[in-house]
Amino acid sequence: MSRTLVYCMFVLRVHQVLPEVTHNALNCGVPLGADNLQSDRIVGGYDVGYYRYPWFAALIRYNEVSCGGALIGPRTVVTAAHCYKEFLTLASKGDLKLESIYNVKLGVYNICTTETIQREYTIEKVEVHELYNQKKPYYDICLLTLANETHSFQPICLPQSAIKNRPLDGYVPGLGTLRYKGAMPCTVHEARLLIFNDSDCLNMLNKTGNDLKSFKNAFCAGYTQGGIDTCQGDSGGPLQIQNEKGIYVLLGVVSYGFRCAAPGMLGIYTDVSKYLDWIQEKSGLDAGVVNLIYNSTSPVTTRPTKASHKPKPQRRPLKKPIRIIIY
After folding, report:
1. How far apart are CA 274 and CA 283, in angstroms?
2. Fewer CB atoms inside 10 A, N or C side of the chain?
3. What stretches of 151-291 adopt beta strand conformation (E)?
């Protein structure tokens, strides 16, 4: 599964928007249908089975899914900056508008059919993080402001503050390919991924020849034995965790990786909890307002155990992460 993202425009209108924020906040992070669909299988993932996550967004270009995203408040979607990477130079010269690149679909389960709940939005404003061009592939976050209201769709909750002790695992829904350079599925798939500590992440990155000093506000998730991962088309999608009340909270944005589900290689995710001030500055959204239901101080903090099978050392893979390329 794979890539892309957009922004919103609230800063001076936050008081007008507040009632809608409060209304949606009472339901943020609540999936539809069954309480749990847990499985250890995007690559190696499983079909969610029905329309489950009202906050899941698909970025559409030429009637195809290019990236994922997550609704985090009224008219506001968070995605990956690299979904716009190939367009930034032209946009800086005034040759195109980033707002014209994608449309955003909400209410998606089966993208190949016309579902009555689906709604397609044009984008009013795109806000790519101002440090992304200098620091890429990090600072890989973008905000999209949709042109019309999103009353019908509940957002995912934001963390209350920066998360120092990440939980054991998280879930990533998406519409990306089911294998490297494979076909895109019609339906949303989901994968459960282990979340690794920064030292394990840096050790993995060191084997790829990437600059460890540039690693910033990101984390690794996946399986050291491979087999389950996000892939092309999943970029920008949410890595979501559950708090003690079972409410879904946005922890990560699918950023980059090395092929898909390769042994010894983990995926890299932008840590949304480190960008709460930036999100509030650019959109006017405050986690404390949006997440009235999110009262826990922190999510579960148990660490993943290392796999008993250690993969053989890999020859240095491509230095440039493959997942940040938009096909």
Report:
1. 16
2. C
3. 169-174, 189-196, 218-222, 238-242, 248-256, 267-271
- Bridge partners for 71 per DSSP: 77
Q: Which residue among the candidates 2, 82, 200, 273 is catalytic per the annotation?
A: 82
Evaluate if residue 224 carries a pLDDT over 90: no
Mean pLDDT of 123-150: 96
pTM: 0.78
Domain ranges of the chain: 11-319
DSSP summary character for residue 60: E
Spatial separation of the C-alpha atoms in residues 165 and 49, rounded to whole Å: 32
How is residue 20 written in tokens? 């809608």
The active-site residue, picked from 2, 66, 129, 140, is: 140
The residue annotated as part of the active site, out of 66, 235, 255, 273, is 235
For the segment 64-100, what is each residue's pLDDT rounded down to a tens digit?
999 999 999 999 999 999 999 999 999 999 999 999 9
- Alpha helices by DSSP H, listed for 113-197, are 132-135
Q: Does residue 235 have an active-site annotation?
A: yes
Look up 214 and say whether it is catalytic: no
Mean pLDDT score of the chain, rounded to an integer? 79
Which bin fits 282, alpha (ψ -120 to 50), beta or left (φ > 0)? Answer: alpha
Fold of 11-319: Thrombin, subunit H (2.40.10)
